[in-house]
């Protein structure tokens, strides 16, 4: 498979090394409330990262709302609940924001603003949105690590420093995940680092999923058992990106992390920054919940389409098996009286557009 091409490094103005060592890349699609809450938590980090937000063709004024928050014109009100502590008190305003288009982002390196906001005129999908930010971040040769972080998350203040420490300590590191806890159930994990993947069925299950966070675990064992790092919180090294390439954009949504993992086989290590803790709202933009019956028709469509595409691309001998499995999943939706989901899954299986 041909890797996505990377741009050559460019010269940038001098800014503190702690700011550029790790860059957060976040994609926003009509989710300005979540994005602002995530930014509030990131800007309170004990080690401040560089932050790039890619607005993926939002249609609800997300760019204007983010800029109003950054200027202080629209005050931030922390949400109620236990995680309010991660964004209270709000960071001082103004937060400096550099707003640039996709073409400028591909040509010039990041500046010294608190946040770089790249505006895409259309929704290009999860992978392409992240790739826009990654290409821009790679233009600064001082940036070593690139953390793809979902906008529907908040982070503990020490998460960035824990990620950097684990990446620094891991020989030939490629990808690294974190503890991912449920935002609405912070006492339980969504996963530790990532998931195990069943090659026969194409199904995955998060390591530690739904287990109380009081349960003991061995970080080394978790890293060894990780087939792919959860895309909601996935840090990659520069060497990994320059060798393996960026995310495969043809999926649009889902299976990007698994594709990255397969392309990485035998090259770079998978690490686990167990000291880095984030909280994930899980499916905040598209309803991509892992819970039974809670995925939206949109999420069901892209999940099935991407699974079939993944097998055709990487495991063609197992590709035909995906069709009887897909039919079984469609019948299950019908049994649950979810005809809209079943219909969109049929279109995905047949390679047809959603509508």
Quickly list its features.
single chain, 355 residues, alpha/beta, ten-stranded mixed beta sheet, 12 helices, 34% helix, 21% strand, disordered N terminus
Radius of gyration: 20 Å
Q: What value does the average pLDDT take?
A: 91
- Tally of alpha and pi helices: 12
- Sheet-strand content, in percent, reads 15-25%
**What is the helix/strand order?**
HEHEHEHEHEEHEEEEHEEHHEHHH
Main sheet properties: 10 strands, mixed
Structure in words:
It is built from twelve helices and 13 strands. The longest helix has 18 residues, at 297-314. The protein has helices at 17-20, 32-42, 62-71, 102-107, 126-138, 159-169, 219-225, 238-244, 256-263, 297-314, 322-335, 339-349; strands at 22-28, 50-56, 97-101, 115-120, 145-149, 153-155, 173-182, 189-192, 194-198, 203-206, 228-229, 233-237, 269-280. The protein is of the alpha/beta class. The strands form two sheets. Strands 1, 2, 3, 4, 5, 6, 7, 8, 12 and 13 form a ten-stranded mixed sheet that branches. Strands 10-9-11 form a three-stranded antiparallel sheet. Residues 1-15 have low confidence and may be disordered.
């Amino acid at each position: 498979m041909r890797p996505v091409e990377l741009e050559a490094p460019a010269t940038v103005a001098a800014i503190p090394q702690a700011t550029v060592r790790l860059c957060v890349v976040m994609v926003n699609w009509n989710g300005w409330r979540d994005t602002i809450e995530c930014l509030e938590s990131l800007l309170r980090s004990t080690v401040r990262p560089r932050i790039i937000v890619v607005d993926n063709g939002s249609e609800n004024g997300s760019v204007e709302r983010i800029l109003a928050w950054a200027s202080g014109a629209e005050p931030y009100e922390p949400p109620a609940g236990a995680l309010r502590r991660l964004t209270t008190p709000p960071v001082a305003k103004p937060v400096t924001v550099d707003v640039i288009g996709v073409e400028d982002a591909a040509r010039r390196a990041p500046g010294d603003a608190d946040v770089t906001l790249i505006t895409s005129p259309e929704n290009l999908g999860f992978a392409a949105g992240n790739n826009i930010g990654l290409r821009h971040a790679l233009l600064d040769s001082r940036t070593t690590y690139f953390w793809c972080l979902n906008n529907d998350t908040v982070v503990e203040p020490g998460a960035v420093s824990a990620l950097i420490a684990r990446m620094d300590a891991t020989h030939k590191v490629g990808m690294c995940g974190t503890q991912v806890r449920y935002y609405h159930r912070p006492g339980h994990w969504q996963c530790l680092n990532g998931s195990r993947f069943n090659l026969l069925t194409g199904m995955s299950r998060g390591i530690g999923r739904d287990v109380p966070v009081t349960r003991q675990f061995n970080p080394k064992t978790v890293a060894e058992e990780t087939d792919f790092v959860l895309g909601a919180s996935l840090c990659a090294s520069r060497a990994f990106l320059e060798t393996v390439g960026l995310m495969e954009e043809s999926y649009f949504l889902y299976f990007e992390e698994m594709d990255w993992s397969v392309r990485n086989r035998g090259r770079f290590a998978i690490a686990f920054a167990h000291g880095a803790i984030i909280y994930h709202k899980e499916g905040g933009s598209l309803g991509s919940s892992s819970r039974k019956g809670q995925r939206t028709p949109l999420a069901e469509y892209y999940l099935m389409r991407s699974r079939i595409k993944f097998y055709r691309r990487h495991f063609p001998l197992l590709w035909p098996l995906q069709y009887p499995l897909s039919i079984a999943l469609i019948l299950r939706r019908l049994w649950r009286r979810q005809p809209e989901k079943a219909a969109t899954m049929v279109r995905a299986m047949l390679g047809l557009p959603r509508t």
